[in-house]
Design a protein that fits this description.
The complex is a heterodimer.
Chain A: H1 3-12, H2 15-44, E1 48-49, E2 55-56, H3 60-76
Chain B: H1 2-7, H2 11-21, H3 26-35, H4 50-56, E1 63-66, E2 74-77, H5 106-137, H6 143-148, E3 151-154, E4 163-168, E5 171-177, H7 180-187, H8 200-203, E6 209-213, E7 224-225, E8 231-235, E9 240-243, E10 248-250, E11 262-264, E12 269-272
Antiparallel strand pairs in B: 1-2, 3-12, 4-5, 5-6, 7-8, 8-9, 9-10, 11-12
Helix pairs in contact in B: 2-3
The chains are: A mainly alpha, B alpha+beta.
GO cellular component, one term (chain A): respiratory chain complex III
Keywords (chain A): Electron transport, Membrane, Mitochondrion, Mitochondrion inner membrane, Respiratory chain, Transmembrane, Transmembrane helix, Transport
InterPro entries (chain A): QCR9 (IPR008027), QCR9_sf (IPR036656)
Chain lengths: 77, 273
């Protein structure tokens, strides 16, 4: 019995199991899709990462890190 | 030929001609027209029925005749000169061979179809869910409104035994620093004797600090602190008496004073909201 046959018999054959598979699939798909979208957004809004130490962040979570770094380096001096 | 098939009653004749006709149309027409001069149909005393008509109607490989008492009579020819269209363009590879049974790979094909439909259903469910969530969340308060809706209270500003009133979400907020006697007194009250039975421990997080929304549960007046027969609050509008736990003890109000959500962030700071 091939893989397709197994899938067909266990999932697709009965409407109840098919519907259940769709609902469960939707839960995981939502997680995957949202993560993908967020990741893409963060990647596109990374800001300038120049080689001259000075970074130009766009999002607050990046900016917060930058500020913390800047503060700690100020304290060192 | 159409006329022949409609005869019905003269069936022997019709079936005789149709047998000649069976494979080819052209000779049948000729033979019928030439023969019809001499044949006189015998009249049987026989009543035809639906079944008898259709049973005796000529049937062969290429000819199908149907006849009915009240219904229409028709003769159909299965033409042999029409080629079957070629559908190979539209067939899946597994079913392309016309001379082999397509049953062998049917599970694979169905699984593929179900897969596509199921994938669409998953995407549809996701879209529907996010659509509903988006529309419902427009009714929720935004983050800045929620931030404005909180109030920080410095506890060291309120001396023991005093009640302070703040404005919070457009309503008066009572914060009362209770004395040890007050705490003892309200804790000792029999819960079953109350109109709205709540123990003092259900209404406070820390016994010293009582937080209440200063709106009388009767008709919404603002009660006066440290007044009334029970040493808590007294509503001047219709004379409701609340005790030092904000519970209704006497008067027309049906419920205890409402306790809002609050938390102690440090020893000296409380956030309501």
């Amino acid at each position: 019995m091939s893989f397709t046959q197994t899938i067909y018999n266990t999932v697709f054959r009965r409407t109840s199991s098919y519907a259940l598979a769709i609902v469960v699939g939707a839960v995981f798909f939502e997680r995957f899709f949202d993560q993908l979208g967020d990741g893409l957004f963060d990647y596109m809004n990374k800001g300038m990462q120049s080689h001259m130490q000075a970074t130009c962040s766009k999002q607050w979570k990046d900016l917060k890190q930058d500020l913390a770094l800047r503060q700690s380096s100020d304290e060192d001096e | 030929m159409i006329a022949a098939s409609r005869l019905g009653v003269s069936l022997p004749h019709v079936s005789a001609t149709s047998q000649i006709v069976a494979s080819q149309l052209r000779p049948a027409v000729i033979s019928l027209s030439s023969a019809s001069k001499d044949v006189i149909p015998e009249r049987h005393e026989f009543w035809h029925t639906q079944q008898s008509l259709s049973a005796s109607a000529p049937k062969s490989c290429f000819l199908r005749a149907t006849s009915a008492v009240h219904g229409p009579s028709q003769v159909r020819y299965a033409h042999t000169d029409i080629t079957v269209p070629d559908f190979t363009e539209y067939r899946r590879e597994t079913t392309a061979a016309a001379n082999r049974s397509a049953e062998a790979g049917s599970v694979d094909r169905r699984a593929f179809t179900y897969m596509l439909v199921g994938g669409g259903a998953v995407a549809g469910a996701y879209s529907a869910k996010s659509l509903v969530t988006d529309f419902v969340s427009t009714m929720a308060a935004s983050a800045d409104v929620l931030a404005m809706a909180k109030i920080e209270i410095k506890l060291s500003d309120i001396p023991e035994g005093k009640n302070m009133t703040f404005k919070w979400r457009g309503k008066p907020l009572f914060v009362r620093h209770r004395t040890a006697e007050e705490i003892e007194e309200v804790a000792a009250v029999d819960v079953n004797s109350l109109r709205h039975p709540e123990h003092d421990s259900e209404r406070v997080k820390v016994p010293e600090w009582l937080v209440l929304i200063g709106v009388c549960t009767h008709l919404g007046c603002v009660p006066i602190a440290n007044a009334g027969e029970f040493g808590g609050y007294f509503c001047p509008c219709h004379g409701s008496h609340y005790d030092a736990s904000g519970r209704i003890r006497k008067g027309p109000a049906p419920l205890n004073l409402e306790v809002p959500e609050y938390e102690f962030t440090s020893d000296d700071l409380m956030i309501v909201g």
